[in-house]
Amino acid sequence: MTNSAPQPSPPNQQRGWFTRFLDSVEWLGNLLPHPITLFALFCLFILVASGVAAYFNVSAIDPRDGSTVIEAVSLLNAEGLQRIVTHLVTNFTGFTPLGTVLVALLGVGVAERSGLISAAMRGLVMKAPPRMITLVVVFAGVVSNTAAELGYVVLIPLAAMIFHGLGRHPLAGLAAAFSGVSAGYSANLLIGTVDPLLSGITEAAANIIDPDYTVGAEANWFFMMISTFMIAIMGAFVTDKIVEPKLGQYDPSEATIELDQQTMEKLSSAEKKGLLYAGFSFLLIMALLALTVVPEWGILRHPETNEVAGSPFLKGVVAYIFISFAIPGFVYGRVTRSMKNDRDVIDAMSHSMSTMGMYIVLVFFAAQFVNFFKWTNFGTIFAINGAEFLTQMGLTGPLVFLFFIMICGFVNLMLGSASAQWAITAPIFVPMLMLIGYAPEVIQAAYRIGDSVTNVITPMMSYFGLILAVATRYKGNLGIGTLVAMMLPYSMIFFIGWTALFFIWVFGFGLPVGPGSPTYYG
Q1: DSSP label at 294?
Q2: 48-62 pLDDT, tens digit each
Q3: Name one GO biological process term (predicted).
Q4: Considering only Cβ atoms within 10 Å of each terminal Cβ, which end of the chain, N or C, has fewer?
Q5: How far from 117 is each of 150, 151, 217, 271, CA to CA, in Å?
């Protein structure tokens, strides 16, 4: 007798092929050394390559005057060695992302340690109407990247629990939160720690072409703010219309935990009171900042032009991040009694700094690589030759950004760290695209799209194992291939929708990606 039931062989064959592809990506990614080791190897490679390039007289003609010859400079000689040993420390201490990120995290650490961010996240998601829950979960995931760990550690497991409590598939809740936290990583309503991190690297790369060019932390704020709502809408659509219907009815027997014992901690009266007072303190800070820049007599306007553009207000964004998290965080801590005095604040800041050990080591080697690359003139030579190639190919229009975003997304499959990837690629692509007429701020915005959308489908993402562990609580036999297949629709839709938004925003409407951020470079 033959079985008349539908046969699952085609999906299994497709899953098998897809799993093999993902296994290949994971295998190739595992061949790469640790990002810190990678930067150290790149530094050695630059030294050897500079000697070879100088020996063969590698050079390029400066397109700005058509006569100046830019030659490769060797670091593999006595003069190069002297330059390295005398600038080793200043390369590190002068690397812009180092100080800006650490200062911003001092404030974020207070808000995180006091419980403010966690309570705000839980309050936002758990109070959402059932019909809006998916949209709110994705939205909360996007804004949670201000404190990166909380989105992964708190929101994603919480979303799975809430969906199960509502009688929906818990993996759909997990996927919705994961898409917001990871695939929407660069978007946010407020300027967060990732903004000064990337802008510092972008500025260093832009200085290869224009030594006086500055890129502020607010460079992409407008575009990333509108992207937050776009990502939330797309994430909710994919969850409700694609992922959850494909998952089907949830079978509790597949779980590896006792689902009935799951508890969703609601906000206590003290936490609600703490959020209220923290909110008031935040509004007071915003009002005081507005007084420094909105009136014509604002003390943080530009001292010469009296404009907002180029003013101390815009240059002091990192300071605002610090106080905007530290003060409300302490207020919340005092109300909820999670913080009692200055010692608790200091402990919170110290704890925040203690988690940055790996980042500081990474920055040391990344700073050496960026400066070595600049000293050799490789960045300028590659940029000029690359710009000439793009001109010959006719890829000087906005279409070049489509390929750039795709390249960034592909590289992200192998190198999951946003700062590590941008530190490697920015010295090449920023000068190259500047030479064909695009501003560093726009280039950085495009990079952030590519760097974000493939986070959810690469096993190289640092929290991927944690997400897989949470998912197996609800489906014991779930593997890497199944998880990535579940997240692939988010990656595809986000890539299409976010890229379309970029082209419409920048080239369709001609809107700036941030305050005072130009689209074109002269």
Answers
A1: S
A2: 999 999 999 888 887
A3: p-aminobenzoyl-glutamate transmembrane transport
A4: N
A5: 8, 10, 22, 11
**Residues in contact with 252: Cβ distance below 8 Å, sequence separation at least 6, in sequence order:** 259
Percent with pLDDT over 90 in the chain: 39
Contact 43, 372 (CB under 8 A): yes
Cα(455)–Cα(417) distance, integer angstroms: 10
Of 415, 401, 413, 411, nearest to 444 by C-alpha is 401
| CA distance linking residue 510 with residue 78, whole number of Å | 50
CA 438 to chain centre: 21
pLDDT score of 46 more than 80: yes
Q: Enumerate helices (H) and strands (E) in the chain, giving the number of each.
A: 23, 2
Q: What is the pLDDT of residues 419-434, one digit of tens each?
A: 778 888 888 899 999 9
Q: What angle do CA 315, 316, 322 make, to 5 degrees?
A: 150
Angle at 73 between CA 69 and CA 79, to 5 degrees: 135
How is residue 155 annotated by DSSP?
I
Asked if 419 and 201 touch (Cβ cutoff 8 Å), the reply is: yes
Cα 233 to Cα 148: distance, rounded to the nearest angstrom: 21
- In a 13 Å sphere around the CA of 231, the CA atoms on its Cβ side amount to 33
Q: What angle do CA 355, 158, 272 make, to 5 degrees?
A: 85
**CA separation for the pair 354, 357 (Å, rounded):** 6
Number of other CB atoms surrounding residue 152 within 10 Å: 23
Over residues 220-237, the pLDDT tens digits come to 999 999 999 999 999 999
Q: Using CA atoms, how far apart are residues 128 and 133, in angstroms rounded to an integer?
A: 6
3-state secondary structure of 438: strand
Residues 29, 459 contacting (CB under 8 angstroms): yes
Q: Where are the domains of the chain?
A: 32-508
Indicate the average pLDDT of the chain: 85
Give the model confidence (pLDDT) of 322-357 as tens digits: 999 899 999 999 999 999 999 999 999 998 888 788
The residue behind tokens 């990837």 is 421
More confident position, 463 or 294: 294
Show the CA angle centred on residue 232, arms to residues 234 and 103, nearest 5°. 135
The reported pLDDT for the residue numbered 260 is 54
Mean pLDDT of 442-463: 88
Instruction: Please check whether residue 415 is in contact with residue 192, taking contact to mean a CB–CB distance below 8 angstroms.
Output: no
Helix (H) or strand (E) holding 55: helix 35-55
pTM above 0.85, yes or no: no
SS3 69: strand
Q: How confident is the model at residue 477 (pLDDT cuts 50, 70, 90)?
A: confident
